[in-house]
Amino acid sequence: METTQLLMISALQHVAYCPRQFALIHVEQVWAENFFTAHGQLLHQRVDSGEAEQRGRVRYERSVSVLSERLGVMGKLDLLEIRDQSDEGNLRYFPVEYKRGKHKTQDWDRIQLCAQALCLEDMRGVSVTEGALWYQQERKREQVVFDEPLRQLTLSAIEQARAILDTRKTPAPTSDKSRCKACSLVELCLPDTVRVDKSKAYVQHLFEAPCEVSDEDIE
After folding, report:
1. pLDDT tens readout for residues 104-154
2. Which DSSP string corresponds to 161-181?
3. What is the C-alpha to C-alpha distance for residues 114 and 155, in angstroms, rounded to an integer?
4. Number of Cβ within a 10 Å radius of residue 19
């Protein structure tokens, strides 16, 4: 697969959160900073600046690049814990993603982490069954199991993102208006305006409606 077709793993969180946000960023090339995005970037800069280290039978590698040509995704892990499980050198891979905010009931962050695990599996020929999300605001680590439902959600997010990139069409705003409040693109997206704008549907109706031609029109 050509590298120009590869999706960034971080983009999967965007499409899971709001397909319109994904299209604005990755199709229309629109971006805007707010407090949350700036704070998140500072957090990842601190995480990425750390060096690899060994503590007992666990090795900690930071800013690890991963790739799956099979899925067409690539990205970078904040932290990879490589745990030596036995004297024979049986290694267990455990990805960790750092997040600025709080634990979420939705799977947006888990999808991003699961995609990292899928890449590790393809690259190293291993089974990656668990990982973790570290939430800075709560100082809390959430264990994530890469079960079949989460894997299917992740594969669906990849397919949805690729479909948007292929069609180059920006979807309508999400119906969950609460997501718009924390989005840095809300002033550029104008979700409330787009929701009430019927012009697109009207134009589409004009072109889809059957054309009736009278005898006067062809004289």
Report:
1. 899 999 999 999 999 999 999 999 999 999 998 888 999 999 999 999 999
2. HHHHHHHT-PPPPPS-THHHH
3. 10
4. 20
